[in-house]
Amino acid sequence: MSGVLSALLALFAYFKDTDFSGIKAFIVSSCASAIYTFAFAFELSSGSLSQISLWTKVEYIGMPFIAPSSLLMVLHFVGMDRLITKSRLIWLYSIPCMTTALVWTNDYHHLFYRSIYLRTDSPAPLADIVMGPAYIVHGSFTFGCLLAGTVVMLYQWNRMKQVYRRQLVTLLLGLLLPTLGAFLYLIGLSPYNMDPVPIIMSITSTLYIWAILSRGMLTAAPIARGSLFESMRDGVLVMDRSDRLIDYNPAAAGMIRGLDASYIGHPLIRLFLTAGKDAVAYVMEADPLVQEERELEWEKGDDICYYEIRSSPVRKRGGQIAGRMIMLIDVTERKRMQDKLRQLATTDSLTGICNRLHFMERSARELERRDTEGGNLSLALFDVDHFKSINDRYGHSCGDMALRHITEVCQGLLRQGDIFGRYGGEEFVLCLPDTPLEEAAKLADVLRAAVEVEGLRLPQGWISVTVSFGVVFAEPGKPLEELLKEADHALYASKRSGRNTVHLAVEHGLVRFP
After folding, report:
1. Which of 15, 78, 283, 346 would you label with 84, given CA atoms 20 to 30 Å apart?
2. 36-62, pLDDT tens digit by residue?
3. Helices in 124-272 by DSSP H: which ranges?
4. CA 425, CA 309: separation in Å to the nearest integer?
5. Element (H, E) at 93
6. Any bridge partners for residue 314, and if so which?
7. pTM of the predicted structure, to 2 decimals
8. Dihedral sign for Cα atoms in the order 447, 453, 456, 457
9. Which residues contact 87 (CB under 8 A, 6 or more apart)?
10. Diameter of the chain by CA atoms?
11. What is the DSSP secondary-structure string of 466-501?
Protein backbone atom coordinates (compact mmCIF):
# COMPACT_ATOMS: atom_id res chain seq x y z
CA MET A 1 0.00 0.00 0.00
CA SER A 2 2.87 2.40 0.78
CA GLY A 3 4.40 1.76 -2.62
CA VAL A 4 1.12 2.27 -4.47
CA LEU A 5 0.30 5.49 -2.60
CA SER A 6 3.79 6.90 -3.23
CA ALA A 7 3.54 6.07 -6.94
CA LEU A 8 0.10 7.68 -7.17
CA LEU A 9 1.41 10.80 -5.43
CA ALA A 10 4.26 11.07 -7.93
CA LEU A 11 1.89 10.71 -10.90
CA PHE A 12 -0.62 13.16 -9.45
CA ALA A 13 2.08 15.78 -8.78
CA TYR A 14 3.57 15.30 -12.25
CA PHE A 15 0.30 15.97 -14.05
CA LYS A 16 -1.01 18.64 -11.65
CA ASP A 17 -1.18 22.22 -12.92
CA THR A 18 0.51 24.15 -10.10
CA ASP A 19 2.56 27.23 -9.30
CA PHE A 20 4.38 25.46 -6.46
CA SER A 21 8.11 25.75 -7.24
CA GLY A 22 8.94 22.70 -5.10
CA ILE A 23 6.83 20.31 -7.17
CA LYS A 24 9.90 18.66 -8.77
CA ALA A 25 11.40 17.89 -5.36
CA PHE A 26 8.05 16.40 -4.28
CA ILE A 27 7.94 14.19 -7.39
CA VAL A 28 11.50 12.96 -6.80
CA SER A 29 10.72 12.23 -3.15
CA SER A 30 7.53 10.34 -4.04
CA CYS A 31 9.23 8.28 -6.80
CA ALA A 32 12.13 7.45 -4.49
CA SER A 33 9.67 6.42 -1.76
CA ALA A 34 7.81 4.14 -4.20
CA ILE A 35 11.04 2.40 -5.25
CA TYR A 36 12.14 2.01 -1.63
CA THR A 37 8.84 0.58 -0.36
CA PHE A 38 8.25 -1.82 -3.29
CA ALA A 39 11.82 -3.14 -3.01
CA PHE A 40 11.40 -3.56 0.75
CA ALA A 41 8.23 -5.59 0.15
CA PHE A 42 10.17 -7.90 -2.17
CA GLU A 43 12.94 -8.11 0.41
CA LEU A 44 10.45 -9.31 3.03
CA SER A 45 9.12 -11.95 0.63
CA SER A 46 12.59 -13.23 -0.26
CA GLY A 47 13.57 -16.77 0.72
CA SER A 48 17.36 -16.54 0.59
CA LEU A 49 20.22 -14.22 1.53
CA SER A 50 21.11 -13.58 -2.12
CA GLN A 51 17.56 -12.43 -2.88
CA ILE A 52 17.50 -10.22 0.21
CA SER A 53 20.84 -8.68 -0.84
CA LEU A 54 19.52 -7.96 -4.34
CA TRP A 55 16.36 -6.19 -3.14
CA THR A 56 18.35 -4.26 -0.55
CA LYS A 57 20.42 -2.87 -3.40
CA VAL A 58 17.22 -1.90 -5.26
CA GLU A 59 15.98 -0.11 -2.12
CA TYR A 60 19.03 2.13 -2.25
CA ILE A 61 18.15 3.33 -5.75
CA GLY A 62 15.36 5.32 -4.06
CA MET A 63 15.86 5.58 -0.32
CA PRO A 64 18.96 7.89 -0.16
CA PHE A 65 17.17 10.54 -2.27
CA ILE A 66 14.05 10.87 -0.09
CA ALA A 67 15.52 13.02 2.69
CA PRO A 68 17.35 15.64 0.54
CA SER A 69 14.31 15.95 -1.77
CA SER A 70 12.06 16.47 1.28
CA LEU A 71 14.40 19.20 2.52
CA LEU A 72 14.24 20.96 -0.87
CA MET A 73 10.44 20.77 -0.85
CA VAL A 74 10.35 22.36 2.62
CA LEU A 75 12.66 25.20 1.51
CA HIS A 76 10.37 25.94 -1.44
CA PHE A 77 7.28 25.75 0.75
CA VAL A 78 8.49 28.33 3.29
CA GLY A 79 9.87 30.68 0.62
CA MET A 80 13.57 30.05 1.24
CA ASP A 81 14.24 28.73 -2.26
CA ARG A 82 16.75 31.54 -2.80
CA LEU A 83 19.13 29.32 -0.81
CA ILE A 84 18.89 26.64 -3.49
CA THR A 85 21.67 27.05 -6.05
CA LYS A 86 23.04 24.72 -8.69
CA SER A 87 26.25 24.08 -6.75
CA ARG A 88 24.31 23.31 -3.56
CA LEU A 89 22.04 20.90 -5.43
CA ILE A 90 25.08 19.06 -6.75
CA TRP A 91 26.51 18.83 -3.23
CA LEU A 92 23.16 17.79 -1.74
CA TYR A 93 22.68 14.87 -4.14
CA SER A 94 26.33 13.78 -4.30
CA ILE A 95 26.13 11.79 -1.05
CA PRO A 96 22.94 9.87 -2.09
CA CYS A 97 24.56 9.06 -5.44
CA MET A 98 27.72 7.82 -3.71
CA THR A 99 25.59 5.82 -1.25
CA THR A 100 23.80 4.03 -4.10
CA ALA A 101 27.11 3.31 -5.83
CA LEU A 102 28.71 1.98 -2.62
CA VAL A 103 25.74 -0.31 -1.86
CA TRP A 104 25.83 -1.88 -5.33
CA THR A 105 29.60 -2.40 -5.14
CA ASN A 106 29.72 -3.37 -1.47
CA ASP A 107 30.90 -6.94 -2.24
CA TYR A 108 34.21 -5.47 -3.43
CA HIS A 109 35.03 -3.09 -0.55
CA HIS A 110 32.57 -3.69 2.34
CA LEU A 111 32.54 0.05 3.18
CA PHE A 112 28.76 0.19 3.50
CA TYR A 113 28.07 -3.20 5.09
CA ARG A 114 30.87 -4.96 6.92
CA SER A 115 28.79 -8.08 6.58
CA ILE A 116 25.20 -9.19 5.93
CA TYR A 117 23.82 -12.49 7.24
CA LEU A 118 20.56 -14.35 7.92
CA ARG A 119 19.13 -14.46 11.42
CA THR A 120 18.74 -17.82 13.00
CA ASP A 121 15.86 -17.02 15.37
CA SER A 122 13.36 -15.23 13.09
CA PRO A 123 10.06 -16.78 11.90
CA ALA A 124 10.86 -15.81 8.31
CA PRO A 125 14.13 -15.15 6.45
CA LEU A 126 15.42 -11.79 7.72
CA ALA A 127 18.88 -10.32 7.33
CA ASP A 128 21.06 -8.52 9.86
CA ILE A 129 23.95 -6.24 8.96
CA VAL A 130 27.15 -4.95 10.45
CA MET A 131 27.45 -1.24 9.61
CA GLY A 132 30.46 0.11 7.74
CA PRO A 133 31.73 3.74 7.72
CA ALA A 134 29.74 4.65 4.60
CA TYR A 135 26.54 3.46 6.30
CA ILE A 136 27.22 5.86 9.18
CA VAL A 137 27.83 8.75 6.75
CA HIS A 138 24.62 7.95 4.88
CA GLY A 139 22.61 7.72 8.11
CA SER A 140 24.04 10.97 9.46
CA PHE A 141 23.31 12.77 6.20
CA THR A 142 19.72 11.45 6.10
CA PHE A 143 19.01 12.47 9.70
CA GLY A 144 20.70 15.83 9.06
CA CYS A 145 18.40 16.60 6.10
CA LEU A 146 15.29 15.59 8.03
CA LEU A 147 16.37 17.58 11.08
CA ALA A 148 17.17 20.65 8.97
CA GLY A 149 13.74 20.50 7.32
CA THR A 150 12.05 20.20 10.71
CA VAL A 151 14.01 23.13 12.18
CA VAL A 152 13.21 25.34 9.16
CA MET A 153 9.48 24.67 9.45
CA LEU A 154 9.43 25.29 13.19
CA TYR A 155 11.38 28.52 12.64
CA GLN A 156 8.83 29.70 10.07
CA TRP A 157 5.79 28.71 12.16
CA ASN A 158 5.05 32.17 13.60
CA ARG A 159 5.66 33.84 10.24
CA MET A 160 3.30 31.54 8.37
CA LYS A 161 -0.30 32.63 7.83
CA GLN A 162 -2.91 30.65 9.74
CA VAL A 163 -4.38 29.26 6.53
CA TYR A 164 -1.09 27.52 5.67
CA ARG A 165 -0.31 26.07 9.10
CA ARG A 166 -2.30 22.88 8.52
CA GLN A 167 -0.20 22.20 5.43
CA LEU A 168 2.88 22.89 7.52
CA VAL A 169 1.72 20.35 10.13
CA THR A 170 1.30 17.78 7.34
CA LEU A 171 4.84 18.37 6.14
CA LEU A 172 6.16 18.17 9.71
CA LEU A 173 4.47 14.81 10.24
CA GLY A 174 5.78 13.66 6.87
CA LEU A 175 9.31 14.24 8.17
CA LEU A 176 8.96 13.37 11.86
CA LEU A 177 7.13 10.03 11.57
CA PRO A 178 9.72 8.35 9.28
CA THR A 179 12.51 9.89 11.38
CA LEU A 180 11.02 8.39 14.54
CA GLY A 181 10.63 4.99 12.85
CA ALA A 182 14.23 5.03 11.63
CA PHE A 183 15.45 5.98 15.11
CA LEU A 184 13.52 3.09 16.72
CA TYR A 185 14.99 0.73 14.11
CA LEU A 186 18.56 1.86 14.81
CA ILE A 187 18.23 1.38 18.58
CA GLY A 188 16.59 -2.04 18.14
CA LEU A 189 13.06 -1.23 19.39
CA SER A 190 11.11 -1.97 16.19
CA PRO A 191 9.14 -5.28 15.89
CA TYR A 192 11.47 -8.15 14.92
CA ASN A 193 14.10 -5.41 14.51
CA MET A 194 12.60 -4.69 11.07
CA ASP A 195 12.75 -1.29 9.32
CA PRO A 196 9.29 0.26 9.99
CA VAL A 197 9.82 3.31 7.74
CA PRO A 198 8.27 1.84 4.53
CA ILE A 199 5.11 0.94 6.46
CA ILE A 200 5.01 4.39 8.14
CA MET A 201 5.15 5.92 4.67
CA SER A 202 1.65 4.62 4.01
CA ILE A 203 0.53 6.97 6.79
CA THR A 204 2.51 9.98 5.50
CA SER A 205 1.33 9.37 1.91
CA THR A 206 -2.27 9.29 3.14
CA LEU A 207 -1.70 12.59 4.95
CA TYR A 208 -0.26 14.14 1.78
CA ILE A 209 -3.22 12.98 -0.30
CA TRP A 210 -5.64 14.39 2.29
CA ALA A 211 -3.77 17.72 2.35
CA ILE A 212 -3.70 17.94 -1.45
CA LEU A 213 -7.40 17.21 -1.87
CA SER A 214 -8.78 19.17 1.09
CA ARG A 215 -6.21 21.90 1.84
CA GLY A 216 -4.94 22.82 -1.62
CA MET A 217 -1.42 21.63 -0.85
CA LEU A 218 0.95 21.83 -3.85
CA THR A 219 -1.25 24.46 -5.51
CA ALA A 220 1.06 27.34 -4.58
CA ALA A 221 3.72 27.78 -1.97
CA PRO A 222 3.01 30.21 0.87
CA ILE A 223 5.87 32.65 0.58
CA ALA A 224 7.55 33.73 3.75
CA ARG A 225 7.04 37.37 4.68
CA GLY A 226 10.71 38.20 4.31
CA SER A 227 10.97 36.81 0.79
CA LEU A 228 7.82 38.59 -0.38
CA PHE A 229 8.68 41.87 1.32
CA GLU A 230 12.22 41.93 -0.03
CA SER A 231 11.32 40.95 -3.58
CA MET A 232 8.43 43.39 -4.14
CA ARG A 233 8.99 45.81 -7.04
CA ASP A 234 6.92 48.50 -5.33
CA GLY A 235 8.34 50.41 -2.40
CA VAL A 236 6.88 49.64 1.04
CA LEU A 237 7.27 51.71 4.20
CA VAL A 238 6.02 50.38 7.54
CA MET A 239 5.22 53.08 10.10
CA ASP A 240 4.33 52.84 13.78
CA ARG A 241 1.41 54.59 15.48
CA SER A 242 3.46 57.80 15.78
CA ASP A 243 4.19 57.68 12.03
CA ARG A 244 7.85 56.80 12.58
CA LEU A 245 9.59 54.44 10.17
CA ILE A 246 10.09 50.93 11.53
CA ASP A 247 10.78 48.96 8.30
CA TYR A 248 11.20 49.36 4.55
CA ASN A 249 12.07 47.14 1.60
CA PRO A 250 14.90 47.50 -0.98
CA ALA A 251 12.49 48.90 -3.59
CA ALA A 252 11.64 51.80 -1.25
CA ALA A 253 15.35 52.50 -0.73
CA GLY A 254 15.73 52.80 -4.49
CA MET A 255 12.77 55.16 -4.80
CA ILE A 256 13.51 57.50 -1.86
CA ARG A 257 16.87 59.20 -2.17
CA GLY A 258 19.18 58.53 0.77
CA LEU A 259 16.88 56.06 2.55
CA ASP A 260 18.94 53.67 4.69
CA ALA A 261 18.91 52.08 8.14
CA SER A 262 19.70 55.43 9.79
CA TYR A 263 16.13 56.57 9.02
CA ILE A 264 14.60 53.88 11.24
CA GLY A 265 12.76 55.59 14.09
CA HIS A 266 12.49 58.94 12.29
CA PRO A 267 9.17 60.57 11.30
CA LEU A 268 7.79 60.26 7.80
CA ILE A 269 8.29 63.96 7.10
CA ARG A 270 12.06 63.48 7.16
CA LEU A 271 11.84 60.92 4.34
CA PHE A 272 9.52 63.08 2.23
CA LEU A 273 11.08 66.48 2.94
CA THR A 274 13.46 66.49 -0.04
CA ALA A 275 10.83 65.16 -2.45
CA GLY A 276 9.12 68.52 -3.03
CA LYS A 277 5.95 70.32 -2.01
CA ASP A 278 3.57 67.55 -3.13
CA ALA A 279 5.25 65.01 -0.85
CA VAL A 280 5.40 67.42 2.10
CA ALA A 281 1.73 68.35 1.63
CA TYR A 282 0.82 64.66 1.67
CA VAL A 283 2.52 64.12 5.04
CA MET A 284 0.84 67.19 6.52
CA GLU A 285 -2.65 66.40 5.19
CA ALA A 286 -2.96 62.59 5.17
CA ASP A 287 -4.68 60.84 8.06
CA PRO A 288 -2.64 57.74 9.06
CA LEU A 289 -5.83 56.02 10.25
CA VAL A 290 -7.62 56.36 6.90
CA GLN A 291 -6.98 54.24 3.84
CA GLU A 292 -6.34 56.43 0.82
CA GLU A 293 -4.62 56.68 -2.54
CA ARG A 294 -2.96 59.75 -3.97
CA GLU A 295 -0.67 60.57 -6.89
CA LEU A 296 2.30 62.79 -6.06
CA GLU A 297 4.86 64.67 -8.08
CA TRP A 298 8.18 63.48 -6.64
CA GLU A 299 11.46 65.34 -6.98
CA LYS A 300 14.60 63.18 -7.28
CA GLY A 301 17.43 65.65 -7.71
CA ASP A 302 16.97 67.25 -11.12
CA ASP A 303 14.40 64.65 -12.22
CA ILE A 304 10.66 64.68 -11.65
CA CYS A 305 8.93 61.36 -11.02
CA TYR A 306 5.34 60.48 -10.20
CA TYR A 307 4.46 58.07 -7.39
CA GLU A 308 1.09 56.63 -6.55
CA ILE A 309 0.91 56.50 -2.76
CA ARG A 310 -1.35 53.91 -1.14
CA SER A 311 -1.68 54.14 2.61
CA SER A 312 -3.59 51.69 4.79
CA PRO A 313 -3.74 51.12 8.57
CA VAL A 314 -2.12 48.00 10.03
CA ARG A 315 -4.19 46.38 12.75
CA LYS A 316 -3.36 43.87 15.43
CA ARG A 317 -5.44 40.72 15.84
CA GLY A 318 -7.69 42.48 18.33
CA GLY A 319 -8.39 45.26 15.84
CA GLN A 320 -6.22 47.92 17.47
CA ILE A 321 -4.21 50.17 15.16
CA ALA A 322 -0.53 49.17 15.19
CA GLY A 323 0.60 51.66 12.55
CA ARG A 324 0.24 51.95 8.81
CA MET A 325 1.77 50.63 5.62
CA ILE A 326 2.61 53.00 2.78
CA MET A 327 3.12 51.58 -0.69
CA LEU A 328 4.93 53.65 -3.33
CA ILE A 329 4.22 52.71 -6.94
CA ASP A 330 6.26 54.40 -9.66
CA VAL A 331 3.75 55.62 -12.28
CA THR A 332 6.14 58.00 -14.05
CA GLU A 333 5.96 56.21 -17.39
CA ARG A 334 2.18 55.94 -17.18
CA LYS A 335 1.90 59.63 -16.31
CA ARG A 336 4.16 60.67 -19.18
CA MET A 337 2.21 58.48 -21.58
CA GLN A 338 -1.05 60.01 -20.39
CA ASP A 339 0.38 63.51 -20.87
CA LYS A 340 1.59 62.57 -24.34
CA LEU A 341 -1.80 61.14 -25.29
CA ARG A 342 -3.52 64.21 -23.85
CA GLN A 343 -1.23 66.43 -25.89
CA LEU A 344 -1.91 64.42 -29.05
CA ALA A 345 -5.64 64.68 -28.40
CA THR A 346 -5.64 68.46 -27.81
CA THR A 347 -2.73 69.89 -29.81
CA ASP A 348 -2.21 70.48 -33.51
CA SER A 349 0.85 68.43 -34.42
CA LEU A 350 2.20 70.96 -36.97
CA THR A 351 1.90 74.24 -35.09
CA GLY A 352 1.69 73.17 -31.44
CA ILE A 353 -1.45 75.20 -30.74
CA CYS A 354 -4.96 73.92 -29.98
CA ASN A 355 -6.47 71.61 -32.53
CA ARG A 356 -10.01 72.31 -33.68
CA LEU A 357 -11.75 70.01 -31.21
CA HIS A 358 -9.84 71.30 -28.20
CA PHE A 359 -10.40 74.91 -29.28
CA MET A 360 -14.14 74.32 -29.55
CA GLU A 361 -14.25 72.71 -26.07
CA ARG A 362 -12.32 75.54 -24.40
CA SER A 363 -14.25 78.28 -26.23
CA ALA A 364 -17.58 76.67 -25.30
CA ARG A 365 -16.53 76.78 -21.63
CA GLU A 366 -15.59 80.45 -21.98
CA LEU A 367 -18.98 81.21 -23.51
CA GLU A 368 -20.72 79.47 -20.60
CA ARG A 369 -18.63 81.42 -18.11
CA ARG A 370 -19.43 84.70 -19.89
CA ASP A 371 -23.17 83.89 -19.94
CA THR A 372 -23.05 83.12 -16.21
CA GLU A 373 -20.75 85.88 -14.97
CA GLY A 374 -21.30 88.53 -17.65
CA GLY A 375 -18.64 90.43 -19.57
CA ASN A 376 -17.42 90.58 -23.19
CA LEU A 377 -16.10 87.91 -25.54
CA SER A 378 -15.08 88.08 -29.17
CA LEU A 379 -14.02 85.54 -31.80
CA ALA A 380 -11.77 85.92 -34.82
CA LEU A 381 -11.09 83.74 -37.84
CA PHE A 382 -8.13 84.34 -40.17
CA ASP A 383 -6.37 82.44 -42.92
CA VAL A 384 -3.27 82.79 -45.09
CA ASP A 385 -3.68 84.77 -48.31
CA HIS A 386 -2.75 82.88 -51.50
CA PHE A 387 -1.64 79.85 -49.48
CA LYS A 388 -2.25 77.46 -52.41
CA SER A 389 0.21 79.39 -54.54
CA ILE A 390 2.86 79.05 -51.79
CA ASN A 391 2.36 75.29 -51.80
CA ASP A 392 2.34 75.09 -55.59
CA ARG A 393 5.37 77.34 -56.11
CA TYR A 394 7.62 76.38 -53.19
CA GLY A 395 6.29 72.98 -52.10
CA HIS A 396 4.22 71.72 -49.16
CA SER A 397 7.19 71.77 -46.78
CA CYS A 398 7.50 75.53 -47.33
CA GLY A 399 3.72 75.83 -46.80
CA ASP A 400 4.18 74.10 -43.44
CA MET A 401 6.99 76.54 -42.61
CA ALA A 402 4.65 79.44 -43.40
CA LEU A 403 1.98 78.08 -41.01
CA ARG A 404 4.52 77.62 -38.21
CA HIS A 405 5.94 81.09 -38.84
CA ILE A 406 2.52 82.74 -38.62
CA THR A 407 1.79 80.80 -35.40
CA GLU A 408 5.02 82.08 -33.80
CA VAL A 409 4.33 85.67 -34.79
CA CYS A 410 0.80 85.59 -33.36
CA GLN A 411 1.79 83.80 -30.15
CA GLY A 412 4.27 86.59 -29.44
CA LEU A 413 1.47 89.17 -29.49
CA LEU A 414 -1.47 87.36 -27.93
CA ARG A 415 -2.39 87.96 -24.30
CA GLN A 416 -2.60 85.50 -21.46
CA GLY A 417 -6.02 83.88 -21.52
CA ASP A 418 -6.49 84.19 -25.29
CA ILE A 419 -7.27 80.82 -26.92
CA PHE A 420 -5.43 80.20 -30.19
CA GLY A 421 -6.21 77.24 -32.44
CA ARG A 422 -5.81 75.85 -35.92
CA TYR A 423 -9.27 75.62 -37.43
CA GLY A 424 -8.22 73.58 -40.46
CA GLY A 425 -5.77 73.79 -43.35
CA GLU A 426 -4.41 77.35 -43.49
CA GLU A 427 -7.23 78.72 -41.31
CA PHE A 428 -6.74 79.83 -37.66
CA VAL A 429 -9.16 80.86 -34.95
CA LEU A 430 -9.02 83.03 -31.82
CA CYS A 431 -11.25 83.16 -28.76
CA LEU A 432 -10.70 86.43 -26.87
CA PRO A 433 -12.28 86.41 -23.38
CA ASP A 434 -13.09 89.73 -21.70
CA THR A 435 -12.62 91.53 -25.02
CA PRO A 436 -15.21 93.83 -26.67
CA LEU A 437 -15.49 93.98 -30.45
CA GLU A 438 -13.46 97.19 -30.90
CA GLU A 439 -10.55 95.85 -28.86
CA ALA A 440 -10.69 92.49 -30.67
CA ALA A 441 -10.58 94.31 -34.01
CA LYS A 442 -7.49 96.30 -32.92
CA LEU A 443 -5.72 93.08 -31.82
CA ALA A 444 -6.60 91.39 -35.11
CA ASP A 445 -5.16 94.36 -37.03
CA VAL A 446 -1.97 94.25 -34.95
CA LEU A 447 -1.57 90.56 -35.78
CA ARG A 448 -2.27 91.18 -39.47
CA ALA A 449 0.32 93.95 -39.66
CA ALA A 450 2.94 91.90 -37.76
CA VAL A 451 2.61 88.96 -40.16
CA GLU A 452 2.91 91.30 -43.13
CA VAL A 453 6.03 93.03 -41.74
CA GLU A 454 7.81 89.87 -40.65
CA GLY A 455 7.72 88.08 -43.99
CA LEU A 456 9.05 84.53 -44.32
CA ARG A 457 12.58 83.38 -45.04
CA LEU A 458 12.66 80.28 -47.27
CA PRO A 459 15.65 78.50 -48.82
CA GLN A 460 14.69 80.29 -52.04
CA GLY A 461 14.74 83.70 -50.31
CA TRP A 462 12.32 86.05 -48.54
CA ILE A 463 8.66 85.96 -49.49
CA SER A 464 5.76 88.16 -48.37
CA VAL A 465 2.99 86.47 -46.37
CA THR A 466 -0.30 88.13 -45.41
CA VAL A 467 -3.46 87.06 -43.61
CA SER A 468 -7.11 88.13 -43.69
CA PHE A 469 -9.37 88.42 -40.60
CA GLY A 470 -13.03 88.15 -39.73
CA VAL A 471 -14.05 89.25 -36.21
CA VAL A 472 -17.37 88.85 -34.38
CA PHE A 473 -18.65 89.85 -30.95
CA ALA A 474 -20.27 86.98 -29.03
CA GLU A 475 -23.79 88.11 -28.23
CA PRO A 476 -25.23 86.33 -25.18
CA GLY A 477 -27.28 83.27 -26.07
CA LYS A 478 -25.74 82.69 -29.50
CA PRO A 479 -24.18 79.23 -29.94
CA LEU A 480 -20.52 78.94 -30.80
CA GLU A 481 -21.12 77.42 -34.23
CA GLU A 482 -23.31 80.36 -35.28
CA LEU A 483 -20.72 82.88 -34.07
CA LEU A 484 -17.99 81.16 -36.06
CA LYS A 485 -20.21 81.16 -39.12
CA GLU A 486 -20.62 84.95 -38.81
CA ALA A 487 -16.85 85.34 -38.36
CA ASP A 488 -16.37 83.24 -41.48
CA HIS A 489 -18.63 85.60 -43.47
CA ALA A 490 -16.55 88.55 -42.26
CA LEU A 491 -13.32 86.70 -43.24
CA TYR A 492 -14.56 86.17 -46.78
CA ALA A 493 -15.50 89.84 -46.97
CA SER A 494 -11.80 90.56 -46.27
CA LYS A 495 -10.85 88.15 -49.06
CA ARG A 496 -13.22 89.77 -51.53
CA SER A 497 -12.01 93.28 -50.72
CA GLY A 498 -8.40 92.54 -51.64
CA ARG A 499 -7.11 90.41 -48.73
CA ASN A 500 -4.71 91.46 -45.93
CA THR A 501 -7.61 93.26 -44.17
CA VAL A 502 -9.89 92.93 -41.14
CA HIS A 503 -13.68 92.86 -41.37
CA LEU A 504 -16.16 92.88 -38.50
CA ALA A 505 -19.51 91.09 -38.36
CA VAL A 506 -21.93 93.57 -36.80
CA GLU A 507 -25.67 93.67 -36.36
CA HIS A 508 -26.34 95.63 -39.55
CA GLY A 509 -23.81 93.78 -41.77
CA LEU A 510 -20.06 93.56 -42.41
CA VAL A 511 -17.72 96.46 -41.73
CA ARG A 512 -14.08 96.89 -42.69
CA PHE A 513 -11.64 97.87 -39.93
CA PRO A 514 -10.40 100.47 -39.43
Report:
1. 15
2. 999 999 988 888 888 989 999 999 999
3. 133-155, 162-186, 197-215, 225-231, 250-255, 268-272
4. 45
5. helix 86-104
6. 323
7. 0.48
8. negative
9. none
10. 133
11. -EEEEEEE--TT--HHHHHHHHHHHHHHHHHTTSS-
